[in-house]
Amino acid sequence: MSDTAAAGPGLWDRDPQRYWTGFTEAVVAGGIDSPALVLDSAALEHNVADLLRRAGGVPIRLASKSLRVRSVIADLVARPGFAGVLAYDLDEARWLATRSGITDVLMGYPTVRTTALANFLADEIATSRVTLLVDSTEHLDAIDAVTGAQARPSVRVAIDIDASLRLFGGRVHIGVRRSPVHDREGALALARHIVDRPGFDLVGVMSYEAQVAGVGDDVPGKAMKNHAVGAMQRLSMTEIRRRRGRIVAALHQIAPLEIVNAGGTGSLEQTARDSSVTDIAAGSGVFGGHLFDTYHHFRPAPALAFGLDVVRIPAPGYVTCAGGGWIASGPPAADRLPRPVWPADLRYVGTEAAGEVQTPLHGPGTAGLSIGDRVWFRHTKSGEVCERSPQVVKIARDADGTARVEEAVPTYRGEGKCFL
After folding, report:
1. Element (DSSP H or E) covering residue 63
2. Backbone phi, then psi, for 388, in 5-degree steps?
3. Is 147 helix (H, G, I), strand (E, B) or coil?
4. Which of 41, 133, 287, 400 has the fewest CB atoms lying closer than 10 Å?
5. Nearest 5°: phi and psi at 270?
6. Cβ distance 324 to 306 under 8 Å?
7. Coil, strand or helix: which one is 305?
8. Quick one: which of 309, 401, 360, 419 has its CA closest to 21?
């Protein structure tokens, strides 16, 4: 019986105590010190299978920002149902294309960093495998300013189409602030400039409907807000499918697009309904950060967690862990904090929360804790936590559910990489 089958989908739900104590058993037996960043292989495989199911046959492009473990990225990209990587930094994209041999890397963001561009433009393998993202002619100017078209290979580029929902003539903007290219006319103008300009090949389009992919619609205690979010998301997906389809159809008359990327972990089903899309970005759903606990249509397994040591018992009902201030990016709020998940019933101290060097906790879950015990936390997002550890310890489970260390693999940081 395989480790995945032995653990079985849903162990984290059916028997949380067995699931989380398995993390502790594995790292203690393996001599892994805290802070320990641990990945349950069975939960990972559950999440991967669920992402593929939700994508409905549309290939998934792995969002590397949400993973930041090169061995995991390379493993998944090689599997059926996956198609390339969506990278967040040009140096990272070049590294993945050359070091890991990934032949299809799409940049998720523009870059104007001259050193990164110079290294990229001098690398014929990277320029053949990496597609840069642009949303203005100034991005093309920045590339040419580093190395002119006559002195470099032709650069593959994709246009970033703004997928936000604009209402009332643009007076209401729902979504993230990304590309200024929103309508068909703007996209066509930029596309014509690209195809007429020496040294550039227009090969793709990207658009990210963040207001659907990254916003939960099943937040506990927020019934009215959830209803409003759901209605907004349905309206937004109807609008972007129509608008994106028209833009892509028009662009195909100018250049043979290879890539039409869209969506994210939270919007897989909806984005898969867009016939103009060739692949859907997803990454966070692989590791299952707690941000995605607030979606009604899917719930990833908590595959990745980090364990901290209890180093103080300052008073009855309180324990203090070493470290823990691994806060997620985004608007400062409680949902950016790591979530203590085991032992159950642990809460932050309101005046301190998660601290850089110590994190006090209180609540009924402290009753059985002693100095030296482990407390397990889930990060809000998926990839960001990997910036805090040089390695991820992968654990597998035997037929009786006993967890053991399978291997330790380096994160980006463990390979000496710090991209952003």
Report:
1. strand 60-63
2. -100, 0
3. coil
4. 400
5. -70, -45
6. no
7. strand
8. 401
Residue-wise pLDDT tens digits, 187-241: 999 999 999 999 999 999 999 888 887 777 667 878 888 778 778 888 888 889 9
Which amino acid makes up residue 70? Answer: R
Helix (H) or strand (E) holding 287: helix 284-287
Q: Which residues pair with 207 in a beta bridge?
A: 262
The rounded distance, in Å, linking the Cα atoms of 141 and 326 is 38
Which are the contacts of 253, defined by CB distance < 8 A and separation ≥ 6?
Answer: none
| pTM exceeds cut of 0.85 | yes
Distance CA 365, CA 158 (A): 51
| Cβ neighbourhood burial of 201 (10 Å; 0-12, 13-18, 19+) | middle
Among candidate residues 298, 290, 309, 247, the one with its CA nearest the CA of residue 378: 290
CB distance 85 to 118 below 8 Å:
no
Are 295 and 218 a contacting pair, CB within 8 Å? Answer: yes
Helices (H), 204-264: 210-213, 223-252
Phi and psi torsions of 292, nearest 5°: -90, 10
Per-residue pLDDT reduced to its tens digit, 43-77: 999 999 999 999 999 999 999 999 999 999 999 99
- Domains of the chain by residue range: 3-35+302-414, 43-287
Say which CATH class 3-35+302-414 falls into: mainly beta
Quickly list DSSP for 348-400.
E-TTT-S-SSEEEEESGGGTT--TT-EEEEE-SSSSGGGGG-SEEEEEEE-TT
Domain 43-287, CATH homologous superfamily name and number: Alanine racemase (3.20.20.10)
Amino acid at 252: H
Distance CA 115, CA 94 (A): 13
- Torsion angle (degrees, nearest 10) of CA 294, 299, 304, 308: 50
The first and second tokens of residue 381, run together, are 């997002």
Task: Kindly state the DSSP code that residue 110 receives in the 8-state scheme.
Answer: -
DSSP state of 96: H
Residues 6+ apart with CB under 8 A from 128: 153, 156
Helix (H) or strand (E) segment spanning residue 6: helix 3-7
